[in-house]
Amino acid sequence: MLDQFSRTQLLLGREAMERLYRARVAVFGVGGVGGYTVEALARSGVGQLDLIDDDKVCLTNLNRQILATRSTVGKYKVDVAEQRILDINPKAVVRTYKTFYTPQTAEQFDFSQYDYVVDAIDTVTGKLELVEQAQKAGVPIISCMGAGNKLDAAAFEVADISKTSVCPLARVMRKELGKRGIKHLKVVYSKESPMTPIEDDSISCRNHCVCPPGAARNCTQRRQIPGSTAFVPAVAGLIVAGEVVKDLAAAR
Q1: Integer Cα distance of 138 and 150 in angstroms
Q2: What's the number of CA atoms in the CB half-sphere (13 Å) around residue 71?
Q3: Measured between alpha carbons, how far is 72 from 63 in angstroms, rounded to an integer?
Q4: CB contact at 8 A, 223 and 54
Q5: Smallest Cα–Cα separation from 33: which of 193, 230, 248?
Q6: What is the pLDDT of residues 56-91, one digit of tens each?
Q7: In the structure, what pLDDT confidence band is assigned to residue 251 with cuts at 50, 70 and 90?
Q8: What is the pLDDT of residue 216?
């Protein structure tokens, strides 16, 4: 029967689409990278999506985050994402968690429920905890490395963490995972060397923070305010989604 996923079925086939429909994917972080991942997973027919992020849409997100528009500023990102998903696929099951994922909040999540985990968060401690929990549960996970301070959207690659180079975040993750006895992790990373953002106090979030009132964290707490573009995080997020769909569609 013709539906919104028919064009995808022409490439993947009915059985693969049924596997996607039955799949439950957890996306940790629905910002610049994770927002595009969620969008593509929803449009690919993934039937269940768990969205984990405690952040609200900020004015400065409009340059790169698919969930960010003037009308969504100040709203929780997971709530905006849920509405988008249900507009695309009313039959989807969406679970939202306004949670900042850390080792301290990890116990809120039962990873054995998931068919796939997406790591699109920023903090190293959170990313390491995600990898450990997913591997303990035997659940596939893909982790996105740094997308900030970069301009070359064509520099992204999919690789095992052991094969990465250049990316500072991947280097830290590789070292810390090694300490934990974890040698392998599928990642999306860029070989582009990160740029140093221009120092301009007139547009610095450090001095003119516009985060929504009540935000748990704001830009003044960051050591560095990263620069960003509309296309680099988007490409990273779409690559992540493509890997998830490919792996789920092929699973038996």
Answers
A1: 33
A2: 3
A3: 13
A4: no
A5: 230
A6: 999 999 999 999 999 999 999 999 999 999 999 999
A7: confident
A8: 60
Task: Tell me what percent of the residues of the chain surpass a pLDDT of 70.
Answer: 90
Query: Tokens 């003119």 appear where?
Result: 208
Residue in the structure block whose two tokens are 């039959």 = 91
200 by DSSP, 3-state: which? coil
Q: Please give the C-alpha separations between residue 84 and each of 46, 99, 112, 209, in angstroms, as whole numbers.
A: 14, 20, 26, 27
Q: Are 246 and 25 in contact (CB under 8 A)?
A: no
AA letter at 28: F
Q: What phi-psi label fits residue 138: left (phi over 0), alpha (psi between -120 and 50 degrees) or beta?
A: left
Neighbours of 193 (CB within 10 A): 12
Q: What is the Rg, in whole angstroms, of the alpha carbon atoms belonging to the chain?
A: 18
Q: Name residue 50's beta-bridge partners.
A: 26, 95
What is residue 171's three-state secondary structure?
Answer: helix
Q: Edge to edge, what strands does the sheet with 141-144 contain?
A: 93-97, 48-52, 24-28, 116-119, 141-144, 186-190, 156-160
User: What pLDDT, in 10s, does the model give residues 184-216?
Assistant: 999 999 999 999 888 766 666 666 566 666 556
Are 241 and 40 in contact, with CB atoms under 8 Å apart?
yes
Place of tokens 């509309």: 230
Which residues pair with residue 144 across a beta bridge?
188
Checking if the pLDDT of 137 tops 80, the result is yes
Counting every residue written for the chain, the total comes to 252
CA dist 50 and 217 (Å) reads 22
What's the one-letter identity of residue 216?
A
